[in-house]
Amino acid sequence: MKRLWPRALSLRLALMFALASVLLLGALGLYLYQSLEREIAWRDDKALVGRVERMRALIGDSDSIEALRLRPQLYANMLSNRESLLWVLDGTGQPLIEVNPVHLPVPALAPGAGVQLRSSGGDDPARLAWQHVTHEGQSLTLVAGKLLAERAQMLAAYRLRLWLALGMGALLAFGLGWAVSQRGLRPVRTLAARAAAIDVQHLHLRLQGVEQVHELQQLGQALNEMLARLEDGFGRLSRFSEDLAHEMRTPLNNLMGQTQLALQRNRSTEDYEALLASSQEEYERLARMIDNMLFLARAERPDAVLQREAIDLHALVAQLCDYFEGMAEERGITLVNAAHGTLHADPQLLRRALANLIANALRYGAADSPVHIACTPSAHHAEITVANQGAPIAAEHLPRLFDRFHRCDPARAQPGDSGGLGLAIVRSIMQMHGGSVRVESDASGTRFVLVFPRRA
């Protein structure tokens, strides 16, 4: 069925417009035709009944039937055309008076009171009206008829004109529909031309000039929003490529510089051991970066599977506090476990997300201050908060804080950190759980909030 429709939308609209016009004109023509047919039949029946009544009056005024037979002009004037029929039949059905130009056989008529009507078929179809009367003790049947050939010819001519009008109407509707659709679809062509002008170098362009058309306004708005998302995604990808190249270039430059420096002259065994130890740190840094990149790539796959189970939050946070106890003591920071309740999530991923946030809090929190890990359950979600005191994060960094490789202060990169991927991993873990992460930072401190939706 789809192959029968043309590919051009303007032609489809023109065909549908023509089809709708044919249906409308056909229904209107059928109604007019049937109305005309009923009106003609009603008028013919009225005329036939009138003739029967006039014949009855003539017979009543005449001395005898024989007198009427000698005065044919009376009923000839009454009939006035060759399509009319007239019989005056006696009690045995034999015609006493007959006007029958096509020599139809005398019809067999049913008895009954009053004027009766019926149609007769055959080669010469006719409409008959008759009445049984009694004149001077003699039973008579007065029959008036009309041949239907003229009516049939007139109706056939009318049907032909209707078909011709219907065909012309369909052609005109198709032509007008095509012209109207061509003009109506002009904004669509304009929109397509403007969309075709947008490429990678012009992602900042937006589709404008279609606001006058309501449907296209919605389409243009949706496309503009899509372009904004593509521009943002492309910008993130570009920044990610630059950051990735920068992050990988630093350890590689360190490795090459140290190796070139060591090869300039003979070194002692201790120097070579120190060089290998330094190279090992850079290799580990590269390995962590690659592991984190692989984790982010796998987390973004739509078929990523979560191993959800009920987690005792207080016990989980207690394990993490024990793990980070040494790092916290170095800076005089106290880890406060205020998390309670149960959460249904992937324990490995939740542990990794909380570990990244706690490591960040220990790294950037003020010395000799507490780091609070708490949980706030509600009917629809559960919020796990990791809060530390210290200098607030600048407002310009907050929107990009969870971007890959983004650092508020690149100079503060430390050995053993996540290479700017820690918070990006936290966001990916929350997205895998259908939740979200947000950050709030002011003079009182910085709070990272993990929002887990409750299961239905």
Provide a descriptive summary of the structure in words.
Strand 1 and strand 2 (95-99) form a beta hairpin. This protein starts with 8 loop residues before the first helix and ends with a strand. It has eleven helices and twelve strands. 53% of the residues lie in helices and 18% in strands. It has a five-stranded antiparallel β-sheet with strand order 2-1-5-4-3. Strands 7-9-10-12-11 form a five-stranded mixed β-sheet. The chain has a two-stranded antiparallel ribbon with strand order 6-8. The protein is rod-shaped. 19% of the residues are buried. The protein is of the alpha+beta class and 456 residues long.
The gist of it:
With 456 residues, the chain is of the alpha+beta class. The protein has helices spanning 9-61, 65-69, 72-79, 149-184, 186-196, 214-263, 269-299, 313-323, 325-330, 347-364, 422-432; strands at 84-89, 95-99, 116-120, 126-135, 138-147, 309-312, 334-338, 342-345, 370-377, 381-388, 436-442, 445-453.
